[in-house]
Design brief:
17% of the residues lie in helices and 30% in strands. It is an alpha+beta fold.
């Protein structure tokens, strides 16, 4: 069973009588659909609908939640949550020395009696489990990143900058990370408008090449025109956030797509439900 210790992740605990109501009113995810023993993605947005913090959230007992996020922004995330707390009966804290380990493959599914095992729901039919417990081995972090990239699962830092992407851009709407039928939350108006009008054009795509891909941040171009940006890579495979209308136009015209100087192909993750637009659009920006 392949696994990896993720040293760049941290946990935030949110507990108390008002914990679920508090989080439900500010986060994108619908907590009514979050079951025990599973972790789902979500985000805290700016009022303009951009992702301020991304995370995985799971239940940690009655009136308690566990938020897994990037370690380097965890203190800022806690500070932001405290600003929204007001008089809510909620305790927000960061447990010390809690390690995050991820395992993948058929053998990664633990028994229901293993309270430390949490199913990561971002990967469609793939079996991915997260453990929040001590471990003495680091495993294979490079293999985990390659697995994540191959399945089209983007994360901030590696694939996009916080404050620069909408939930639709990074497929949170496809992963169950946005509740379109729940009440209001921060940035909800913009995200709902994108959903109902079908105006989401920037999407995460899998980038593949026959030569080693360049570094993260390299532009994806068609005849010198930018169509997207390359994110994290694993030699010949990477992730990119691209304008799917421009990619479709290039595919229809038989025009090569480049990452820097490297020819690439762009495909939709197999588990995603969106498709390339049937009619291409001009040069306007999203």
């Amino acid at each position: 069973m392949p696994f990896a210790l993720l040293k760049d992740r941290a946990l935030i605990s949110v507990s108390g009588p008002d914990a679920e109501h508090f989080l439900q009113n500010i986060l994108t995810i619908d907590l009514d659909a979050l079951g025990n023993g599973e972790a789902k993605p979500g985000a805290l947005l700016t009022p303009q609908g951009k992702i301020l913090f991304d995370f995985l959230i799971s239940r940690a007992g009655e009136n308690a939640f566990r938020i897994e996020c990037r370690a380097d922004v965890s203190d800022d995330f806690i500070h932001r949550l405290m600003l929204y707390k007001l008089r809510a009966k909620v305790e927000i804290a960061k447990p010390e020395q809690t390690l995050v380990t991820v395992a993948w493959g058929k053998e990664s599914i633990a028994s229901e009696s293993d309270s430390a095992a949490i199913a990561d729901r971002r990967f469609g039919d793939e079996d991915v489990t997260r453990f929040y417990a001590d471990t003495a081995d680091t495993g294979d972090v490079a293999a985990w990143q390659a697995f994540r990239i191959a399945h089209g699962v983007a994360e901030s830092g590696a694939d996009y900058a916080l404050g620069d992407a909408f939930p639709h851009d990074v497929l949170l709407d496809e992963m169950g990370g946005v509740g379109f039928r729940k009440g209001c939350y921060v940035g909800q108006e913009v995200v709902s408008r994108m959903q109902h009008r079908g105006t989401a054009r920037r999407r995460v795509l899998i980038v593949e090449a026959r030569l080693a891909l360049p570094t993260s941040g390299t532009e994806l171009t068609v005849e010198g025109r930018p169509v997207g940006v390359l994110g994290s890579t694993a030699t010949l495979t990477g992730l990119g956030i691209a304008r799917i209308d421009r990619v479709k136009a290039a595919l229809d015209a038989g025009q090569p797509i480049l990452a820097g100087e490297v020819p690439v192909t762009l495909t939709i993750p197999s588990w995603a439900k969106f498709s390339f637009p049937q009619e291409t659009v001009g040069a306007e920006e999203a």
